[in-house]
Amino acid sequence: MDKILIIGACGQLGTELTQRLRELKGTENVIASDLRDEPIKLIADGPYEKLDIMDKDAFHAILGRYNIKQVYHLAAVLSAKGEQNPQFAWKLNMESLLLVLEAGRDRLNKIYWPSSIAVFGPDTPKENTPQNTVMSPNTVYGISKLAGERWCEYYFEKYGVDVRSLRYPGLIGYKALPGGGTTDYAVDIFHKAIAGDDYECFLSENTMLPMMYMDDAVKATIDLMETDAANVKVRSSYNLAAMSFTPKEIASEIQKHYPDFKITYKPDFRQKIADSWPGSIDDSAARNNWGWQHNFGLKELTNTMIANLKDTIVFD
Ligand code: VAH
After folding, report:
1. pTM above 0.85?
2. Are 171 and 217 in contact (CB under 8 A)?
3. Which of 179, 190, 229, 306 is the most interior residue, by most CB within 10 Å?
């Protein structure tokens, strides 16, 4: 059984991916790592290492200590936070990926690295965005993800590194809070509605964005990593989709459960980021190559988020 290292394990996706991989592979085979001294409670059941992925020696020491053979490299600065510190976002997002890809040349069997719909830009076709199309991202996050995709394909073709990647839409889950994304309004809105508060949305009401419930994102990630290498025909990064909705649409769905919930709209700098992204994604390559199928639409997402969050939100 390959030992797996998850970098960024305390993040929104990392938390849930760590839990699921431990269920599938055995807790002791999945080493979680993040910048924090201690793991968050949800993943404190198994091995954890404090790791700054910019520290090459510390990274290689962990690879050796546990005889790691697979790395899920999730650590990154997301779109909104990246625009506030472009130089750091580029450095972290790119240099850490190259560190992991280099390790893949001689000591790893498989690598997972997340890309994003942020690789698309203002002149990309907005509807049913194809796998291969015009890509001119205008955020440092999107630029770093597009460059990262090119490096992944380069390391696969030049060195045979088995690195796999997905272009995630906005991810929504209840177990761990997101950090610094433009799509994070779709998580914030549930916390506000359930706490009985009004919500001031930082995007305009008709901003259509591709979104996905966290369980689907975790399923797609593991399905891609577990499929035979011969099925992985895209070595940059696969388009991945489940649903698209606007803030107005998700608010209406929530109001079916909380009729008094009120939303107002006050677009900020994140509106320009969202406007540069597609409204919907063609993920037929993932569906044809390795059998991707999503399970959650807007209704199922809303029901699940409310069912799980309402027992954890402290009411004012
Ligand atoms: C962000 N949640 O908003 C991320 C994601 C498609 C968006 O990459 O930056």
Report:
1. yes
2. yes
3. 190
Q: Which residues pair with 48 in a beta bridge?
A: 32
For the chain, the average pLDDT equals 96
Spatial distance between the Cα atoms of 70 and 225, rounded to a whole number of angstroms? 10
Using an 8 Å Cβ cutoff, are 246 and 204 in contact?
no
In the chain, what are the domain boundaries?
A: 3-169+212-239, 173-211+243-279+296-309
Pocket test of ligand 1: the residue of 141, 211, 245 to mutate, having most ligand atoms within 8 Å of its CB, is 141
User: Comparing C-alpha atoms, which of 178, 161, 175 is closest to residue 215?
Assistant: 175
- Centre of ligand 1 from the C-alpha of residue 161, in Å: 26
Q: Answer whether residue 311 shows pLDDT above 90.
A: no
Query: Quick check: 247 and 199 in contact, CB under 8 A?
Result: no
What is the rounded distance in angstroms from the CA atom of residue 272 to the CA atom of residue 269? 6
